[in-house]
What we know:
Layout: E1 25-30, E2 35-38, H1 40-46, H2 50-53, H3 58-61, H4 72-76, E3 87-94, E4 100-110, E5 116-126, H5 127-165, H6 171-203, E6 211-212, H7 215-228, E7 236-240, E8 248-249, H8 251-268, E9 273-280, E10 283-289, H9 321-331, E11 335-340, E12 346-353
Parallel strand pairs: 7-9
Antiparallel strand pairs: 1-2, 1-5, 3-4, 4-5, 6-8, 9-10, 10-12, 11-12
Amino acid sequence: MHGAGTGGQEIVPACSIAVDDLPDGLIVTDRFGRVLAVNRAAVRLTGVPAARAVGKDIDEVFPFRDHDGREWWKALDPQGGLRTRTRVPERPLHLPGGQELHVAARLVREPARGGDVARVTITLRDGGARARLERSRADLVSTVAHELRSPLTSVKGFTATLLAKWTRFTDEQKRVMLETVNNDADRVTRLITELLDVSRIESGRLEVRRQVVDVPARARRVVAGRVAAGEPEDRFRLVVDDDLPEMWLDQDKIDQILGNLVENAVRHGRGTVTIVIESVGWGVAVSVRDQGEGIEPELAPRVFRQFWRGNSRRRGGTGLGLFIVKGLVEAHGGTITVQRAPEGGAEFRFTVPTGTPDFA
C-alpha cells in the first residue's frame, strides 16, 4: 500500500490497512475528489500507477464516464444531496481506454449520521469478468433448456398419446412407449442431479464424508453395472497394485468419479477400457484408459469445463460429467489430468491422498 501522497498530502491512517490484499480495486478520495490512496487491484484494473494518482483530482486521473458520456464524479456530487446519503449503487462505467468497470462508492461522513463527507471510498470490479460470468450463466440456461426440451417433449407426447388412444394400442406397444417415458424421466432426473452437483461445487458447499473405502472393489462394482447394462465383460480390464495403503474417502463420491470416467471411456472411446489403481508417493492414483481417438493436447485444458463434449453429440450426454469429476476429486484434496493413453486413446488419471483424516 502506498502510504504517502505527493505534495505533502497526508494519508488518512485508516486507508493504509492492508487494502492491497483486497480482491477488488479501491480508490479513496477526500471530500473534494483528491485521491488519497489506490490499491494494487485498482492499479491493475485501470492501468494508472498509484504514484501518479495520489494527490491528483480523481477526474484528472480516473475520468469515469457512463454509457452516455456523462462524468460520473460530477454526477456523484459528494457534497450535495441529502446528508443521509452514504452509498452509491454499483454501475458500469468506462475509462477513456474503453475498458468497462463496475464502480460503486461509499460516502464516509463525520459524524456518521448526517455529518459532512470526510472521504469517499470507491470500489472497482472488472466489467469484462462480469460480462463473461453473465454470458456463462446465459449459456447454462440455454443448454439446460435444450437438454430438458427433448425428453420432456417425448414424455408429454407419449403420455398424451396413451391417454387419448389407450385402447388402440397393443400391450407391447404400450410397454415400448412407457419404457421410453421412463428412460426420458431418468434422463431429466440425471440432469437435475448433475446441476445440483455443479451448484455445490461452484459454491464450495460440497461435503466429503470420509470412511475407509476399498477403491478396487468400487471399480469392480462400476464395471459390473456396465456389464449388467449390456456391455461385454471382456471390454473391461482392471489392474491393481498388490499393496495399496488405507484410503479414507467419500464412498459415494468415489463411485460417482469412477462411474463418470468409465461412462466417458465407453461413450467416447473404443476398444478395451482399462482401469489401473496404483500406489504413488502421497496417495493412490487411478487411471481410466480407452483405445479411441484420444484428446488433442491443445484441447486438454477444455475437457473439464462445463458442457464440454468435444465432437460428440450422442444422446444422453450433458457435458457436465468431467466438470463434476474434477470438483469431486479436488474436494478430496486430489488432482486429475488427461493425457494420451499408452495404447492410444485418452487416459484420465486422478490422484487422492491417503491416510487417516484428522477428526479433531
